[in-house]
Amino acid sequence: MKRTDDRAAALLRHSDEETAARLAALAIPPGSPERARLLDRAERKIMMHDDSHFEDEVRGTAVTVKHTHFRHIAAAAACLLVIGGTAAGALWLRSKSPDSLTPATDVEVPVSIEETPIVALPDQAAAYALYQSFPDSIGRMSLHLHTTMQTEEDDLTLALDIPADRGSFVYTEDISGMRYTCTCYVEGDVYTHLCDSPLSECTVIHRTDAAGTLVRETLLGYLPVQIYSDMLDDLTRWHVTDQTVYEGREVWVLEGTIEDDAVYDWTAYLDKETGFLPYILSKDADGAVEYTCAADGVQYGEEAAAPDVFTEAQRTALEADPAWTFREVWEDEDGVVTAEGDADTNETCDATALETIIARYGSVPSRWYGYGMNSKGEIYGSCGGYPFDDEHYDLLCDLIAFGGDKAEQTYIRKDELFAVAKTDLLRGNICDRAGADWRVEQERDEVVVYELGTMHLYNKEGEEVGTFEACATLTPEQAAMNDTQSAP
Amino acid sequence: MTMNEQDVRAAWARDPREGHQALFDAYFHYVFAIAHRILTGIGTQEDMEECVADTMADVMQHFGDIREGSLKAYIGTVARHHALNTARALGRHPTVSLDEEERPEPIDPDRPDAIAEDAAQRRILIEQIQALGEPDSAILLQKYWLGRDSREIAASLGLTPANVRKRCERAVKRLRKALADADIW
Question: What's the CA gap between B154 and A140, in Å, rounded?
């Protein structure tokens, strides 16, 4: 893939002038800030070149004023008048003022002055320098990280929970002049809970020395806390507002805004000692959580969990897993050769992780099928694309989104679903009578309808709001498989 | 909509400020391409921007004197003049041919069809990049053609560096798949 990228870059680089103009039009499109900036710069140059005769926006041409001796004399006289007037005014005020205070003057002192804590906030430049010092200052650290992210797709929310005991770590070191960047080790256990389709990202990083020899390879994820911290790079959009203690460590509180597809307000904590950002929370204008990332159990130095390496045995085992395909290798800006693999089929939803996240942040910020916990402690939300089989029973929400719309989502109970539909094929293809009729009309002989009986609909609080005639529609092949599964 | 000289002159007649904008819309990419071809490997991004801004400022100042029908030629001449001056000031010699002819590419004696093949591949590559849509096409071109990093791209397009990285990663995947489907690589 690296060769492919080089080839593409070379083809673009050797474009003729006409093609280059076409590339420029695409690369810096109309309406982009860069075009606006350059137009502004060109217009300023015109003004600088012709400052005695420039076009005024409203009134047309303005001509510079020609100075004469008379004007110089008049200006000097005006200055003398101002100076003289100021001096006279000062003398008059002094004559009217009360006696000045002397050490002997009695001054009424308040009975008690409450001592207020003085918060000596660092200036922004110092805070920014501290943030930039990470991870040079730490040597090694381990942490438990969890994050939720509203993705660009409306109905997709990503939640990660990366436990420290799986070997999460960040460290930095130099090998042949190549500095390791901050990275979080996740050993493949990236838990995702999604509304739409399974997604997991994991990265194998091959580090090479200057001679191109592979010196270490590690299965790594990324550390979202720092990945998303570049919002600090725009110094005009944040401030140090407070200090507090987070997870036993002293941190500065940073607050600001970031403009992405929309404007978000964010709060972040900056570790006073290391420059690490253990906590980021951003919300949109409506107060909906857009992104959270929090690390707890952070340990530094020798106390940190020992950095593990991805052993050959682990790598072989993972590559043998058919769910993993390593299909991307490229070299990034820093010269780090990276291979990426996707696990498309074997995600698990860790219910405990989800509960932790919900407990901390409230509902997980999905615009359509948000996960949450109701007052009875039941988790509601999408099935997340997980199979409705016994193996995944504990990972499914108690109340699974079914029917309703964005305004009023309705749910079915997991236990009722498993009681009514005996096989995972029936559970995964459940619908109401209207849905079954529609599919029959569309596919005629290509569908087999199973009538499952009456099921109940609930709101997210688990209160019954209606019933429906549950059906399942299967293809003839699925029906044959289902009959085999359900046979005693 | 693609603007031409007539559109620019019409806009200028209505209001010079509107004319400035129209001039940029119509010829920015042309000027940028000239600056980029001459200054690549010689100057910085700042040098190229200065060259573009100088060229546009010159054209704006002398717009009334430019003979009708020769605006593009005038702009091209001014842009080359500024780019070459910049190159000289930097003490470097441009490696690009100074006339408008395409730079001859080295011919591999074993593959005389290489130029035609490159041109075809380049055309398909650009079409596939364009098909990614904005801002992904802009991100990829800035990265691979202009050699900019995420922060520079973000500043150019009004995105965050993180967003650029994420979009770039996804766009590269989509492009690779599209090129593989088109049987290019």
Answer: 31
CB contact (8 A) between residue A16 and residue B102: yes
Question: Which of B29, B134, B175 has the CB atom closest to A24's CB atom?
Answer: B29
Q: Are residues B12 and B83 in the same domain?
A: yes
Measured in angstroms, the CA of B67 and the nearest CA of chain A are apart by 20
Mean pLDDT of chain B: 79
B122 and B66 in a common domain: no
Mutate to test the interface with A, among B145, B169, B173, B176 (most CBs of A within 10 A): B145
Which spans in B102-144 are helix H?
Answer: 114-131, 136-144
A427-444 pLDDT, tens digit per residue, is: 888 888 877 887 787 777
Residue A180: pLDDT above 60? no
Q: Please count the other Cβ atoms lying within 10 Å of the Cβ belonging to residue A475.
A: 14
Work out the pLDDT band at A452, boundaries 50, 70, 90. Answer: very high
In a domain, B104, yes or no: no
Question: Does B144 sit within 8 Å of A42, measured CB to CB?
Answer: no
Q: What distance in Å separates the CA atoms of residue A287 and residue A275, rounded to the nearest whole number?
A: 27
Numbers of helices and strands, H then E, in chain B = 8, 0
Cross-chain residue pair B37–A17, CB shorter than 8 Å: yes
> How many domains does chain B contain in total?
2
Within a domain: B123: yes
Residue B161 lies in a domain: yes
The pLDDT value recorded for residue A138 is 54
Structural domains in chain A, CATH included, are 124-343 (2.50.20), 374-486 (no CATH)
Same domain, B84 and B10: yes
Distance (Å) from the alpha carbon of B65 to chain A's nearest alpha carbon: 16
B130 and B165 housed in the same domain: yes
* Same domain, yes or no: B32 and B84: yes
Q: How far is CA A488 from CA A280, A416, A482, A483, A485, in A?
A: 53, 21, 12, 10, 8
Residue A387 or residue A210, greater confidence: A387
CB-based contacts of A71-74 (< 8 A; 24+ apart in sequence): none
The residue segments making up the domain with residue B59 are: 5-89
pLDDT in tens, A61-97: 333 333 333 333 333 333 333 333 333 433 333 333 3
Q: Is residue B27 part of a domain?
A: yes
Label the pairing between strands A379-381 and A399-404: parallel
Contacts of A49 in chain B (CB under 8 A): 57, 61
Mean pLDDT across chain A: 61
Distances (CA, A) of A64 to A52, A67, A360, A381, B146: 5, 9, 65, 70, 43
Boundary-marking domain end, from B45, B72, B89: B89
Q: What are the tens digits of pLDDT across the range A36-64?
A: 888 888 887 777 655 433 333 333 333 33
Domain holding B52: CATH number? 1.10.1740
Task: Give the residue, A147 or A272, on which the prediction is more confident.
Answer: A272
Query: Testing the interface with A: which of B144, B149, B172, B184 to mutate, by most A Cβ within 10 A?
Result: B144
CATH classification of the domain holding B153: 1.10.10.10
For range B49-60, the mean pLDDT? 89
